[in-house]
Amino acid sequence: MKSNSEATRLRFYISNTDKFRHTLLSETLVFAAKRYGLAGATVTKGCMGYGSSSVIHSAKFWEITEKLPVIVEMVDETIKIEQFVNIILPWFDKIPTGCLVTAEKVQVVLFKQGMKKKFF
Predict the structure, then answer these.
(1) Does any domain span residue 113?
(2) pTM of structure
(3) Domain extent at residue 86
(4) At what angle do helices 25-36 and 78-88 cross, to 10 degrees?
(5) Nearest-angstrom CA–CA distance, 74 and 58
(6) Which is it for strands 48-49 and 41-45: parallel, antiparallel or unpaired?
C-alpha cells in the first residue's frame, strides 16, 4: 500500500462474544489478516449497539457478562482485500450469530511503515 493512493477499507461488525472454532472471531480475523499479509487490522469495541437481532446491547457495570459490538477494520490495496474476503467469507457460514461485512473505497493520505517486528 502506498501514500496518496486508492485502497479499500474492509469492516466486520460483530460481537465481542462471537467465536470461530473456540477462538474470539475478532482475534481470528486479525491473525488471519496478519498471516495473509494485509497492511494492518484494528479492533474497536463499541459501548452500545444493535444488529440484525434488533436486541440493544450496552455496557452496564452491573452485568456479569458483557455482549458489546465490535468493529474489525482493515485497509489495503483493493485486490488484496478482495482476495482476503474470498478466503474468509465461508467462515461466516459456520458462525451461528449475525454479522455485517462492508467494503468501501478510501483515499490513503499517508502510509508509513514502522520497523518490522517478529510475529510468533
Answers:
(1) no
(2) 0.83
(3) 5-108
(4) 130
(5) 25
(6) unpaired
